[in-house]
Amino acid sequence: MMRGGANVxxxxxxxxxxxxxxxxxxxxxxxxxxxxxxxxxxxxxxVVLADYVVISDDHVHPIxxxxxxxxxxxxxxxxxxxxxxxGQFAFTTTEGGNYLACFWVDGHKTGNAEIxxxxxxxxxxxxxxxxxxxxxxxxxxxxMRIVNEKTNARVAWFSIMSLGVCILVSVxxxxxxxxxxxxxxxx
Length: 187
Known about the structure:
It is found in: Membrane. By secondary structure, the chain is α+β, with helices and mostly antiparallel strands. Helices cover about 40% and strands about 35% of the residues.
């Protein structure tokens, strides 16, 4: 009985993590003829990123190609690709509403076997490329470190030069005062 409870909690945790990430992977089975669509209600000004790939279990024949079309709620075409086995689209929404991604098999495929398509659809914060962001941040930190090291070196040289000028002025003052007192015959 405990084992079943552990599975349920594991599944709930997995579902929670998927919902938390704002990303969903969808598997579509495309018939030899016809179209299948996936839609999502998205707010205005949200980043959307999706990857799709044809999965084929048939290792004898080449991977069949598909077409993909993504439209906005007002019917504007945001992405349109034909004769591909994989692809990617990215956009920032300009209007809130139901965004539609449709897929269909290109040309005539032999047999009536369905084709599987994996779609990884990310919206909002999940669509950000965190690796690139981290790389940019690391580059920025490296640039700041270089600037700090140069500034520290300049301050060190300025301090050494200031100390040298102070020593020279002190020596000049002592020499001048000594000559002055010798002329006045106080020394």
